[in-house]
Amino acid sequence: MNRANIFVTGFSGTGKTTVGRKAAEMLGWRFVDTDDEIEAAAGRPIPQLFEREGEAAFRRREAQALARACGRERQVVSTGGGVVSAEANRALMGANGVIVCLEARPETIHRRLSEEGAGPEARPMLAGADALSRIRGLKAERQPSYALADWIVQTDRLTPDEAALEIARAWGSLQARGPGGPEDEDLAAIVRASTGDYPVWVGWGIMDGIGEKAAAAARPGAAYVITDEGAYLHGRRAQTSLEAAGIPSHIFALPQGETSKTLDMAARIYEWLASRRAERGHLVAAVGGGIVGDLAGFVAATYLRGMPFAQVPTTMLAMMDAAVGGKTAVDLPVGKNLVGAFHQPQFVLADVKTLMTLPQRDLNSGWAEAIKHGLILDADLFADFQERGDAIRSLDPDKSLDVIRRSAAIKADVVSRDEKERLGLRALLNYGHTVGHAIEAVTGFSRYRHGEAVSVGMMAAASISRQLGMLSAEEVERQRQVLTSFGLPVSLDGEDPAAIRDAMTLDKKSVGGSIRWVLLDGIGRAVNRSGVPTEVVDAALESVGGRKA
User: Fold this and answer.
1) What confidence tens digit (pLDDT) does each residue in 491-505 have?
2) Which residues pair with 198 in a beta bridge?
3) Catalytic amino acids?
4) Do 342 and 215 have their domain in common?
């Protein structure tokens, strides 16, 4: 593919304009409607063009409008229903983006067009005594062309927002597959960010290649490896690789643990960078877990008003969550991640082999985020954790690489569609985090690992979902069994629920004092929900072992 574009095709009434516009908003792209382009160029509405010039002349105008659209990129282009009938149009779209077809049954199309009052004047191809029969006939003629799309979205039972989400998902999934070839064998996903696209590499034993990848992706004049005591040997390996690639490198090791993720520690790193005469074009490389990534990313975002950086996660938790997406932050005594910035990395490189050095508890904690990705957006991934758990837990190179790559691709897809968390899509990644972050805060970030707290939080969120009729008892139990099988806690250890509720009000996901919950409307389908009754929250906390206030 030469350009980043999505061409939305389909029969009239499948929602190309409405859905395409929403998909463009989700992606932060430009929206183009070829029908609007034709009318603007001709100075008259399409029905008049059909009447005065005939269909053949209109199809030529349609092809010209499509060609003009192909001269740009980062667009969602809604096409006329007959565009795909011409092989030349299909080839042009295929060379300049991906083709997504919106589908619907003839009866659905007829109902939608009737509800919007679209008669023969507005839809000249639907003229005739029996509109439904006409729809069936025209659709049958075009169906072989529609079937050639890269992706098909069945819209009969979807809202426009849901259909737009499927288009954005299609883009992320198709991009995550990469163009193929040996050089892409470790490519799990490409994140599409406002500051530029960047790759997420997930492989086995790829740490020693970071120097070559950094030279190609960032071309830095020097590199500053920030790591901690637990990942120091990995940091040294990264430094050695960077030096071998001709990139002068320095290393800073901070004390291990959440207590290092502070403004005071950031200030110490600022002073270290200043003493090494760091420049804007130099690279900060975060080698370690989520704490290192958050802190180093925050430093890179703020020192010299922004330096490029790379995420090199060496823990499961960081690979699954923190390293992808550009969220950087430090903690305050009253809460976690309250001071931070969005700062996207130049690349993410995850060497799964480094996980072999992790203590089992830390490894288990990281699996919580991967399981979460399946619960919120991919029922098949969750089923793999349920059915292939033994092989995944043993870090079998094939099985573990597969689920980690798929999980990273889910995170990359969501970030690409909602980079700054403005559309509510990225917020879905916070399933279990409302209670989880509160548990961490009230226990001083010491009793629970992050993934352990999130695991308990997911059980609380599942309880709320169950009480609201969104999740079945069987689905709640499936979640419980999978989390338990990966060594994760599913209940509290005597914490005061009143303190947890108070801590939740300080969470970044609160809006106007109201907690914005992420709940499950079935496994693989997360939704945002505000206004959950207090008694429902109390019952959920009680269900995970908290004492009722």
Assistant:
1) 988 888 888 988 887
2) 191
3) 305, 327, 369, 411, 421, 426, 430, 433, 437, 450
4) yes
